[in-house]
Amino acid sequence: MFVPSLQKNILKYKISNFLFYGITGFIVGLILGITLCQLTDLSLWILVLMSLLGAGAFFAQTYLHKIVTNEEDLVYYRHEIAILFVCAIMLWVLGQPVASYLDITLMGIGAFLVFGRWGCYHVGCCHGRPCKVGVLYSEEHARAGFPFYYVGVKIFPLPLVESFFVFITVIISSWIILQDSPPGTALIWYTVFYGSVRFILEFFRGDPERSYWKGFSEAQWTTLLLFLFTVALSYIGWLPFYTWHTFAVIGLILSMIVITFYRKKKLFPTYEIINPHHVWEIANGLKTLEKVTNSKDTTQKRPIAISCTSLGLNISTGKIPLEQGHMIHYTLSGTKSRKNKHDFPLNQKAAEVIGELIQTIQHRKEPFEIQAGQSNVYHILFKETNTRT
For position 389, what pLDDT does the model report? Predict the structure, then answer.
């Protein structure tokens, strides 16, 4: 199974793949912008000025976020919005055709993203969820920030899928620009098509460093806001008006309503259980419990260790000796969560989902058995042979 590399060797120097593809994307985006400017008789000097200003906005936002949060966090939508905003202000001040240049600017940003997602793929950020067909990440990736509990687990290469769709989006958008379409048409098309794809792909993201609200990720809410913002600009005449643009906005809103309604009709919130941040909580809890369970300190009786997640899921574990191996048991119970006022809705189906998560996180190949206990308690049992260490 293929393991993406973290670095490239160039002229006897090692360079991070994330940096390599980022630089490559910037260069390709700049070349694309220059080409489109020449073919549409727009000023190259204005493009160069926007490129410098956009790069400055990118690094300024990155460092400002690091100063405020003490963490480095690169979020595509935030950078796209910041770059387009500062470029729009500059174009307006200079009396240049804003929509025409923003079309080309967005093509450069899109080209950057095409290669940037390859960088994400190699270093293991913005990754997908466990899948039967996927790529493997190593301990070296974990030291660089990849979730430790997915090391050695097949992960769906979601960044490559996104890169492909962004490539298609940029190609079509560039063709739209060259067809002498009304200025701003390419910007609308890019926003709607890429936004729709990104909205769908967000459901398959597995990285835990993501913000969620009401069951939708930051990128999904940002997609909605960009849809609404661009259609509003169309209605006031700052962007061209297209009926399909309005229908796209309505479609996205209805999709979010239907998804929310469907989730509330479920007997338990599966999407919350398998939410990447909740999976991260379960994984860290299991890691702590495993240390306690495998402790060789038998001088005194230890209290039962319990891990509790933000949803109110309690997990405890223990080891029962058998004639040929051990029985590892995980006991599940529910309490009122820190997020909701109700108890964790534990039932057979929820226990099965959690069992599959434990099986993946603990890298267990043996099947598990679920036994229902009293007072809405469930036991997940794994039988280990003596060959397992």
Answer: 44
